[in-house]
């Protein structure tokens, strides 16, 4: 293996979403990865319980993906993204449309989940404009929603700490209530029974402003970053019915739920609901190369295609939209998912995963366990006066004992690569059990 030298001075890199001062006193470093495991700088193996940041769905350093990237880099490294094409971007778009639910027929490429969100919101606003309904400018998000870190995303997002430092944000944004309710739904398996009526709040907001002012509603089908909040039975269908009734676009942010996380290609398939716009990233390239994709309905796309044909139809795009190397990585990733049946693995292993996670009920501090597909969460009782502390110390202990978990507030979130085997699940859950028994 290649020798890795960790620099003595870690000060220059201002790390994202990280307590930098704390981290740099006792850094945690990965230097290699393969399949289900990372290797740390001190040579330990760490079982990946989170697929990196919910993205390495096919596991790490898969040769087919690596080779596709190497080949593409040697053959056509970059091509201008505007007014020029290259075959791989078109091929990947075709494959995505084949994979996506019927009705989502066109693809815009981006470089991240955040950019996919901005792209989706802009498509939605512009769509109403080109249809002559420019009065529809309002956007509706949800409390505890995470839609990346750019201005549109934090405006429709519902995480206070991500919003409060950054001024006025977008105007004309309302938020639905979140659906997390431990009083009625603790220890639910799959979709919770109670709370579908929370979607009726949309009707109230729409009535308040008048439907003719509302452009789109954006939600994560399962909210990931704020702790795996699974929608109550019937909730998403209600959102679909209400949006349809009022001519409002429904955007699903599937950055986490896309590419097999729930045991179906997309959450839209799991819930049997087709949104008008679907936002994806992460698993699209197995997290290996930054790339996102926004899928839109033919109705939306075609509305832009009716103007004079010398005009650019949509004034938006990135230098790296459909980048050749990212496209090659995307194609190889989708092929890997297909060849190995990974997009349905969450359906096959879902019950095993569920039983394993729910075996943590009754362990110290555990106030909820929830799961769907191959994602789940364990919610801990916060230490009085020190929220997040207990879960964070569980995260550090888990890392030191060889498990990568993710924590948000006092919630442990788990989303292993979809190549996970039963013995990995046992190992991960037993590792967490030990940690829970040790943390204060
Ligand atoms: N939307 C959702 C639902 C996400 O989970 C994330 C990332 N965790 C994003 C958007 C933003 O993606 P990125 O970090 O690639 O910008």
UniProtKB/TrEMBL annotation:
Q: Which cofactor does it need?
A: pyridoxal 5'-phosphate
Q: What class of enzyme is it?
A: transferase
Q: Which Pfam families match?
A: Aminotran_3
Record bears the keyword Transferase: yes
**Molecular function GO terms recorded:** adenosylmethionine-8-amino-7-oxononanoate transaminase activity; beta-alanine:pyruvate transaminase activity; pyridoxal phosphate binding
This protein's record includes keyword Transferase = yes
InterPro entries found in the cross-reference section: Aminotrans_3, Aminotrans_3_PPA_site, PyrdxlP-dep_Trfase, PyrdxlP-dep_Trfase_major, PyrdxlP-dep_Trfase_small
What Enzyme Commission number(s) apply to this enzyme? 2.6.1.18
Q: Which GO terms describe its biological process?
A: biotin biosynthetic process
Keywords on record: Aminotransferase, Pyridoxal phosphate, Pyruvate, Transferase
> Per its UniProt record, what PANTHER family does this chain match?
ADENOSYLMETHIONINE-8-AMINO-7-OXONONANOATE AMINOTRANSFERASE (PTHR42684), BETA-ALANINE--PYRUVATE AMINOTRANSFERASE (PTHR42684:SF1)
Q: Which family does it belong to?
A: Belongs to the class-III pyridoxal-phosphate-dependent aminotransferase family.
Recorded protein name is: Omega amino acid--pyruvate aminotransferase
- What is the species of this protein? Devosia geojensis
At the highest ranks, the source species' classification is:
Bacteria, Pseudomonadati, Pseudomonadota, Alphaproteobacteria, Hyphomicrobiales
